[in-house]
Amino acid sequence: MVPSEDAAPQLDVDQILADPGVRIVVCCGAGGVGKTTTAAALALRAAEHHGRRTVVLTIDPARRLAQSLGLTELDNTPRQVKGIDVEASGGELHAMMLDMKRTFDDVVLQHTDPAKAAEIFANPFYQAMSSTFAGTQEYMAMEKLGQLHARGEWDLIVVDTPPSRSALDFLDAPARLSRFLDGRMLRLLLAPARSGGRSMFSLVTASFGMFSKVVQKVLGAQLLTDLSGFVAALDSMFGGFRQRAEQTYRILQARETAFLLVAAPEPDAVREAAYFAGRLREEKMPLAGLVLNRVHRPVVPELDAEQSGAAAERLAELGGHEATADVLRAHAALARQAVREQQVAARFTEAFPAVPAVSVTAQPADVHDVDGLRTIGAAIGRS
Fold first, then answer.
1. DSSP letters of 234-245?
2. Beta partners for 55?
3. d(CA 227, CA 100)
4. pLDDT tens by residue, 325-372
5. Which stretches of the chain are assigned E, i.e. beta strand?
6. pTM of the complete model
7. Mind listing the pLDDT tens digit for each residue in 31-55?
8. Nearest 5°: CA angle at 289, between 295 and 78?
9. Span of 57-61, 153-157, 185-189 with lowest mean pLDDT
10. How far is 244 from 165, CA to CA, in rounded Å?
11. Cα 201 from chain centroid?
12. CA–CA distance, 28 with 36 (Å, rounded to integer)
């Protein structure tokens, strides 16, 4: 994608935000490209300009979203954003940040009785898994998205994902969960719980001999006991985990979802965007377009770097025109940067020429309030 108007089909973000058939917008991209800001700007625009009851969910625990929306904090419950201009449109804006442990706890409470839930919460393996295990965050993000979607309270859900390889984990969560649940080790651990309640330790020792001793040595007897208890306690819930994750995955493939790639005109960011676009295509997920942030454009584009540089040197030779020469040199540097950005971003268009795109000019300062989000939203929406 090149930041020129004819480089790729023009992305009409306002059409996406206004479409009542689109209920989920997922923003994906590398870290540091303005993805969180883009998600917040889109959600704000959907509420203010298109009258939609919108919630923006961030999975990446960044405080920027709360600060830019004028909230002191975000947590696992949607909080309404006050002081925005929705009087004419009738829309609403809410924001939240995923708390993976609280989401996991809520799932346990919803699908077990209080006594079983207390047993699960007390299990050391559950305490570790629900807070720190790799993959738990992404799976719980799927759970939270599924919950928000199922409640039916929102016209639009905007999801701000972690940096793109983590966002790929977000997509892979159902498959990884299925592999875990169907794995050989898990079946071994579940066997005692399904065999009359004898301790996992004695059953495995009797059945597998040397294998159990190796497992004990690697994991430790207490950890193995904790793991066995955790698996037994969650056994009845596993089918529901998998079913809900797969259902959310199907929602992400549906017409009601629109994926937006967010990138900056930098090699790593564009490479990540292309990688993600390829995965979305493989998974048959609806890629709506690319938002290219922080694009630099010369004020006088018809004056190229070579011309302005030569003019600056000529004025320096003549003397007495230092300020003008400095301006010309600055213009030359900006023009060279713009060309470099076009060359880098063109790699995406060459690989995905049919993907619509829109570019957003670099802002003079970081976005830190609602007015800044409106500026970004207007630049993306182009209306």
1. HHHHHHHHHHHH
2. 94, 157
3. 20
4. 889 999 999 999 999 999 999 999 999 999 999 999 998 888 888 999
5. 24-29, 53-58, 79-80, 92-97, 156-163, 257-263, 287-295, 357-361
6. 0.83
7. 889 998 999 999 999 999 999 999 9
8. 95
9. 185-189
10. 22
11. 41
12. 9
Residue 346 and residue 353 in contact, taking contact as beta carbons nearer than 8 Å: no
Q: What is residue 10's DSSP assignment? A: B
| DSSP output for 96-135 | EE--HHHHHHHHHHHHS-HHHHHHHHH-HHHHHHHHH-TT
Structure confidence at residue 190 (pLDDT):
54
Please, what sign has the CA dihedral across residues 297, 303, 307, 312?
negative
CA–CA distance, 4 with 270 (Å, rounded to integer): 16
Q: Is 25 helix (H, G, I), strand (E, B) or coil?
A: strand
Q: Has residue 283 got a pLDDT over 60?
A: yes
Q: For residues 195 and 16, which has the higher predicted lDDT (pLDDT)?
A: 16
Residue 177 phi/psi, 5° resolution? -65, -45
pLDDT of residue 205: 44
3-state secondary structure of 180: helix
Rounding to the nearest 10 degrees, give the CA dihedral for residues 342, 348, 351, 354. -90
Q: Measured between alpha carbons, how far is 286 from 171 in angstroms, rounded to an integer?
A: 13
Tokens 């209920």 locate to 23
pLDDT (0 to 100) of residue 164? 64
Confidence (pLDDT) at 220? 52
Please, are residues 288 and 353 in contact by the beta-carbon 8 Å criterion? no
Contact yes or no for 202/92 (Cβ under 8 A): no
CB half-sphere exposure, 110, CA atoms < 13 A: 10
Residue 202 scores a pLDDT above 50 = no
Amino acid of residue 43: A
Q: How far are the Cα atoms of 99, 238, 244 from residue 144, in angstroms, in the given order? A: 9, 17, 10
Are 29 and 164 in contact by the 8 Å Cβ rule? The answer is yes
